[in-house]
Amino acid sequence: MFNRDRWEEILEALSSNWFRTVLTAFGVLWGIFILVILLAAGKGLENGVKADFGDIATNTMFMWTQTISKPYKGLPKGRRFSYKISDVQAIKDNVPNMRFISPRNQLGGFGGSNNVVRGLNTGAFNVYGDYPEIIEQQPMDITSGRFINYGDIDEKRKIAIIGEGVKTSLYEFGEDPLGTYIKINGVNFIVVGTYKKKSQGGDSEEDQKEIYVPFTSFSQAFNRGDRVGWMAITAEDGSSITQLKEQIFDVIKQRHTIHPEDDRAIGNFDLYEQYSRIERLFFALKIIAYFVGTLVLLSGIIGISNIMLIVVKERTKEIGIRRALGATPWSIRGQVLLESIFLTIISGMMGISLGALVIYAINKVLDASGPVDMFSNPSVDIGVVITALIILIVSGLFAGFIPAQNAIKVKPVDALRTE
Amino acid sequence: MNFTKESGKPRYFVIELIKMIEIKDLHKSYVMGENSLHVLKGIDFTVKEGELVAIMGSSGSGKSTLLNILGMLDEADKGSYYLDGKPIKNLSEKIAARYRNKFLGFVFQSFNLITYKSALENVAMPLYYQGMKRNERNKKAMRYLEKVGLADWATHLPNELSGGQNQRVAIARALASEPKVLLADEPTGALDSTTSYEVMRIIQSINDEGKTILIVTHEDDIAHMCKRIVNLRDGVIIKDSKINQVRTKSATHV
Ligand SMILES: Nc1ncnc2c1ncn2[C@@H]1O[C@H](COP(=O)(O)OP(=O)(O)O)[C@@H](O)[C@H]1O
Ligand SMILES: [Mg+2]
């Protein structure tokens, strides 16, 4: 089927009317180009938005306390409550597939007053009391020294890991913070490490202005007792925190005498749910891209089919001659089909290449002009290219099918009579 | 069929020439809307191996219709047709294609060469459909071009050749697949008398080599260069007779 003669015939046929061939090819080229560009733009948007999640483990939920909204077992509504450190173990014992449960306490915050002093320098920073696991949930690069470990937790060491942003505001340029003391709300902590968060989100500046100290030392230094401000809970891969969180809430409600149907007592932010929502959004976008791209492609395919019909019509006599010489129906059909597939694939490949070129250019411009909000690294993966190719081959077949059938529909004698 | 009669006594052979074409009670009508035109109204005839038959008749008498049916380009409505002993009836298009390729060579009045292919490529075309390798094919096609005296024109396109030359290319093409029967529908119809005779000379020489040939013509002089004339009128054969062949000049050296 793919011998030299076949290809010669195909090239002869296609080159016999260059202008028409190019015009026809353009339809498919344009269709696949649009498809590629739409998919790439979708991918770029997706990359941009997902970058806001940084490296945060997305199977994570943050959980804090709110006002109790239902009276229960003789206790009135409007109460406030706090998580206890023992809640952590209770969740671990009662809810399956928990990967990390990090109780956290926090000081300071946006626009708060200065709470950290070092010599003459002061600053307002978020200070967290944390367990070592938090670094798995909110990844950060330790740029010098180390992070919190269980030794610190057990011995309630007054150590601190500071962000690069904290370092710049409290230290002279080039000064090594390791081993120095900072005063947080009047309590001295020794700096044992510095970090930098990779998060590319909008408030990355703020992300570098945090201080991490061991949970236990935090509680002791700032009189939190066994209270826990909030928790970051990550489920194991393979199960979703969105499904497990109700069980967690049940454990908490039971331990704190909260009405089982009190949905307002526990506040939570479910990253996984947000992430899934975004995933769904981009899935929908992808479908739209395929839909629009395929429609445009379809008009290209119809163009090819149309041209093949005309070509077959024009060559009715030639086909008659060939049949008089002994061409089988399949050799005639095959010729038309191959011609149509060939034309489709060639123009499709040119569309893909053109699309890739444009994407490459856009990436170059993006690289040169720095990061753009919500858009980064638009790209088309090999899977899409292969899908597009399969679509092309199939559509080439479809485009050629009716013309091929037409080519052998006429009796040889009638075909020979046409002028 | 060649068969040996073996009786008790002295052995002897009766050599009967093969019936290349045998048709019986062949009918064909063209239906156009309400009207039906009965063109062939019961044709019976037989052509044996090595014959050179002219089919004559006035315009519209059904000569082409008959030849097209013999050439399997069209089908009869009724009647039987045996080609080299094989019944030609209800064949699939695939089988029909093979028979056309193997058994039949067709020459048309308007040459019907493929315009964008060279003389050599045109001649090689039936061999391509036989599945022959390119080299072999071109060699063989070249031999047939030599046979019709056009070896020097092998690379020329049809529009670079004269009418007579084109018809010779067409004859070479019809012969290339070594068919059992050569069918020619007014092969000289588009040619002047000099080139017509040239073409007839080639046809005679091919016939001399034993090829069975049927020619449709309405020209008396062309018909008399054959060995038998079949006359058609109103869809039936009115006369079918052997004649003394008029040889074209220098028919012996092609
Ligand atoms: N495809 C066709 N449809 C209708 N009528 C036809 C067709 N082909 C031939 N005819 C008619 O059949 C008759 C015989 O045609 P044809 O066999 O071509 O005659 P000839 O070759 O002897 O001139 C003519 O009257 C012609 O008009
Ligand atoms: Mg005729």
List its salient traits.
heterodimer, A: 419 residues, alpha+beta, twelve-stranded mixed sheet, two-stranded antiparallel sheet, B: 254 residues, alpha/beta, Rossmann fold, six-stranded mixed sheet, disordered N terminus, binds adenosine-5'-diphosphate, binds magnesium ion
Descriptive notes:
The complex is a heterodimer of chains A (419) and B (254). Chain A has 419 residues and is an alpha+beta fold. Chain A folds into two domains: 4-54 and 276-416, no CATH class; 60-271, no CATH class. Helices cover 54% and strands 17% of the residues of chain A. Chain A has 14 helices and 14 strands. Chain A has helices at 4-15, 18-51, 85-94, 134-137, 150-155, 164-170, 204-207, 215-221, 241-255, 271-314, 316-324, 329-369, 382-409, 412-417; strands spanning 60-65, 83-84, 98-107, 116-118, 121-123, 126-130, 140-145, 159-163, 181-184, 187-197, 210-214, 227-228, 230-235, 266-270. In chain A, strands 1, 3, 4, 5, 6, 7, 8, 9, 10, 11, 13 and 14 form a twelve-stranded mixed beta sheet that branches. In chain A, strands 2-12 form a two-stranded antiparallel ribbon. In chain A, a hairpin with a 2-residue loop joins β9 and β10 (187-197). The radius of gyration of chain A is 33 Å and the shape is elongated. With 254 residues, chain B is an alpha/beta fold. The two termini of chain B are 31 Å apart. Chain B has one domain: P-loop containing nucleotide triphosphate hydrolases (Rossmann fold), CATH 3.40.50.300. Chain B is globular. In chain B, α3 (119-129) crosses α4, α3 packs parallel to α5 and α4 crosses α5 (163-176). Chain B has helices at 63-70, 93-103, 119-129, 134-147, 163-176, 193-208, 220-223, and strands at residues 2-5, 12-15, 19-32, 35-48, 52-56, 78-83, 86-87, 104-107, 181-185, 212-216, 228-233, 236-242. At the A-B interface, α1, α11, α12 and α14 of A face α2 and α3 of B. Bound molecules: adenosine-5'-diphosphate and magnesium ion. Adenosine-5'-diphosphate (ADP) is lined by residues 30, 32, 37, 39, 57, 59-65 of chain B.
